[in-house]
């Protein structure tokens, strides 16, 4: 596919060691010829996959001293000719280099357009393109490793195997229908049926891996709640291991909701420290209370905090009563000055963990318990297994499995083969949706609009 030549600054804006202006398309080398003076050579003499010293010029005017990488199609990121100009990393100088490139025939690239070309030109499928953005956004090693597996093509390959089992069945049916003497009444060969059943089981595994995949990729939203002064901000700080939330003696100082991400054994935990939830005339505080209720509703996990140095009171229960889920870990804080308290009325809390946020006692244990909680709820360790992290893949695969189960049922019940045609088509179509062989312009726009400029 021949497309026009695009260009963009591919490195973050601002001052830095170097910046890269990238070009992709059939005119890249022609444009380079007009704007680049390599030392002691002509552009036409530059070798493929070489890095070349020289100057970017605009009408004999030196714009910058640069290194230029030449990568000719087809073995490039986009499968097109790609030129990368390493300029000095200043805001203005990089802009000027881009300007010269554009003036000489390139067009400014849309967000994600380089990767979109890699997809349109068949170098990667849609799952790999989606993995590119996940790699860029990856916050923990675990999520990065899932994205890298997907980028490598693990999901694409799995889809291809599943697709093959459906295509094998389709081929068999075609032969039988075209040549009835081959045995139209014979049962579908066992190995074909086995492959379909295996494919269906694999899809089921993939679909059920989504909840875990989503947590690894996006994190688990965790709200720290409890009445004012029990130590919520201090707990947030000890988990963050830095002083981010303001800790004071006056009840209710954490008025705004503070959001932080911490990494617990590779799982991003999105911690929100709520303002003290209490009935009060203070308007600011009331807004906080409402926000807290919302947060509890949207949280995947709640850390409910009690101050063990004081008697449990009504206010503790008022907050406890808002909790509308069993996804709660109880925290008994201030054990450095604790007294005996009665926990028998907190039936929603299965597990209590003793800590002192101030003296940093029990913080590691708290982290471990949070991790165990997340893992038990969602996963056995499955670093080796294929995991999906994208809801688009999940819903397409659910459609595939529905179709596969229909096919298997039709076979098991010995019904005529031509009854399977619609389900076979549905299965193949939904698989093609995952890999992007079938895709709409809207879907592509949606996916690539999440990219960065120059990627
Ligand atoms: P929040 O209102 O629930 O966010 O509570 P803060 O984190 O602001 O803490 C309220 C007060 O309790 C502060 O003076 C903290 O220093 C103190 N505090 C927090 N955790 C502990 C602890 O484990 N032991 C003791 N002795 N004091 C603590």
UniProtKB/TrEMBL annotation:
Sites where the protein binds Mg(2+): 233, 254
Alphabetized UniProt keyword annotations: Cytoplasm, GTP-binding, Hydrolase, Magnesium, Metal-binding, Nucleotide-binding, Potassium, tRNA processing
Binding site for GTP: 229-234, 248-254, 273-276
Localization per record: Cytoplasm
Keyword flag GTP-binding: yes
Pfam family, one: TrmE_N
Textual note on the cofactor: Binds 1 potassium ion per subunit.
Cofactor dependency: K(+)
CDD domains per UniProt: trmE, TrmE_N
TrmE-type G domain boundaries: 219-375
Cross-referenced SUPFAM superfamilies: P-loop containing nucleoside triphosphate hydrolases (SSF52540), TrmE connector domain (SSF116878)
Physiological role: Exhibits a very high intrinsic GTPase hydrolysis rate. Involved in the addition of a carboxymethylaminomethyl (cmnm) group at the wobble position (U34) of certain tRNAs, forming tRNA-cmnm(5)s(2)U34.
Subunit-level organization: Homodimer. Heterotetramer of two MnmE and two MnmG subunits.
Protein's name according to its UniProt entry: tRNA modification GTPase MnmE
Organism per entry: Fusobacterium canifelinum
Annotated gene: mnmE
